[in-house]
Amino acid sequence: MKQALKNAGIQLPETAVHRLEKYLELLILWNEQMDLTSVPEAEMAERHFADSLLPLFQEGLFPEGCRVIDVGTGAGFPGLVMAAAREDICMTLLEAQQKRCIFLQAVCDALELKNVTIIHDRAETLGKNEAHREQYDRAVARAVAPMNVLCEYLLPFVRVGGMAVCWKGPQVENEKEDGNAAARKLGGEEMQLMAMGQGGHVVACVEKTEKTLPQYPRKNGIPTKRPLKKDK
Predict the structure, then answer these.
(1) How do beta strands 158-168 and 202-207 pair?
(2) Distance CA 52, CA 227 (A)
(3) Phi/psi of residue 95, each to 5°?
(4) What is the pLDDT of residues 200-227, one digit of tens each?
(5) How far apart are the first and last CA of the chain?
(6) DSSP string spanning 145-211?
(7) Residue numbers in the chain where pLDDT is lower than 50
């Protein structure tokens, strides 16, 4: 873990590094019993943990005390890693698979994290819930869906003036046209790309400037079956 963080140019307090090391141990242990990740053990620290942390070091991207929701967090990437590294962030982890929620809770208990809430639900449902709709400074996602689908998942959670932040690879350039069209329909601006480390990794940031229309997000499964696209 220390070497992966060093290679990425990430400096954390020793207590935070210890939390991430314990998280990694639990990930390896639980991954033997359930499908949490297909990444080889030797690459997990770099590909999951360091990658999840890189955007934290972009000035102003995640302000002190910001309220964040990680949509489709899976085994906790990027949200749980961020919360373990920065206890000032108020993190909500949204995951549709119950077994993964059980793993996430086990990690939170082992790391004694007080800044994390875990919710077992779908984005299409929770995005209509007034307790969560347009209540977050940032909504994040990593390796979940194309940008036009992500915008419909994320932007309903983001307050006006907040931002959706999506971990992406070089293929995001192919998603810009439909992604930008979806963002505009959902109250967002065109996405801005920020390079992250090596290998063409970027984060796509969509600032929200208007409230999301009440018909979004659409019902379960519809955003992926009939994704928003640029009008022909």
Answers:
(1) antiparallel
(2) 26
(3) -145, 135
(4) 789 999 999 999 999 999 999 999 999 9
(5) 48
(6) S-HHHHHHHHGGGEEEEEEEEEEE-GGGGGGHHHHHHHHHHTTB---EEEE-SSTT-EEEEEEB-SP
(7) none
